[in-house]
Amino acid sequence: MLSSANFTGTRPASGDRVTLCIRPEHFCASDNQSAIRLGEAEVTGSAFFGTHFRCHLLPVAARDVSLVAHMPQSARVAAGDRIPLAVDPTAVTVLPVA
């Protein structure tokens, strides 16, 4: 459940369309107890940037969406891997769809 602080305006009604804005560095391990689990994603590419791995992801449940996530240095990710995807709920911004 997201708090009121996540919404740029009033809370949408059930069934309203919204856009979730998540910065690449706010994705986290799915074993984080407070994380919102988003399902699995396929790694389509990754590169080590010193402080993190920049990963291009294709969510299994939304094949028409492409995501970029910054995974920690300790992550073991390679193209073709499926990884659990989660986000810290305090880092999500919700925008209404006009």
From TrEMBL:
One GO CC term, this protein: ATP-binding cassette (ABC) transporter complex
Record-linked Pfam families: TOBE_2
Coiled coil: none
InterPro entries according to UniProt: Mo/tungstate-bd_C_term_dom, NA-bd_OB-fold, Transp-assoc_OB_typ2
Entry's Gene Ontology molecular function annotations: ATP binding; transmembrane transporter activity
Transport-associated OB type domain location: 20-95
Domain of life (superkingdom): Bacteria
Protein name, per record: TOBE domain-containing protein
Species of origin: Ferirhizobium litorale
